[in-house]
Amino acid sequence: MLLEIQRKFTIFFSILSILLISPQITGRPLAVPYADAELIRRIQEIFVMDTGTAVYNITSLDEIVLCPGPNDGETYCREVISHSAKMKTIRSEQFDEFKDDFKDDLLPVEEVIASRMDIEEPVVETTCTSKSTLIYPESAQSKDGKWLLVVQQEDFKQGVLIEECASETTKCKQQFSYRNMVVLVGGDLKKEMVKLPSACECSLCAIEAQHG
Length: 212
Known about the structure:
Layout: H1 2-16, E1 30-31, H2 37-46, E2 54-56, E3 65-67, E4 76-77, H3 83-87, H4 109-117, E5 130-135, E6 139-142, E7 147-150, E8 160-165, E9 172-185, E10 188-202, H5 205-210
Antiparallel strand pairs: 1-2, 2-3, 4-6, 5-8, 6-7, 6-10, 7-9, 9-10
Helix pairs in contact: 1-2
């Protein structure tokens, strides 16, 4: 089974290497549908890929991340193609060092908002509608714009609580923060800071309040 997976990845990367003539795009997806139709057909024979699949880290064949579905403007992927196969390459003893990091955020939404407001700067009241969700991202964007594989296995999961704007407008702006997560890099586990949605801020509320 493992040999079959390795064979598929070898074929896939050989095909995808043809696409690397494109200039490097930091933190932005290469839209697979715009590539040569024949190449897409051959790739789809190996992996089940939606026409909206986004390809990240295109300048490094060993670190390519494939996110199915639309992902514009997001900094994480809930699912990554062949993520489970890559997780199976992790040696069991590698988890020991990070066992305390595999847990879920369990703070109630009210408590999370209260802790975020516990700062010295003036708090701006928000009228923007947002939604808090516990997610298990399989990939997320690092500080330098690189997409990393987040470690998620059956017995080793990292659930993170995020807050996203119901709809982003000129008034309501999505805010992000960085947090440590255990990721797989070059076959080894390590902690990296990744960018995740943390709040929906009303950028005009303070001005509106001043003018009644």
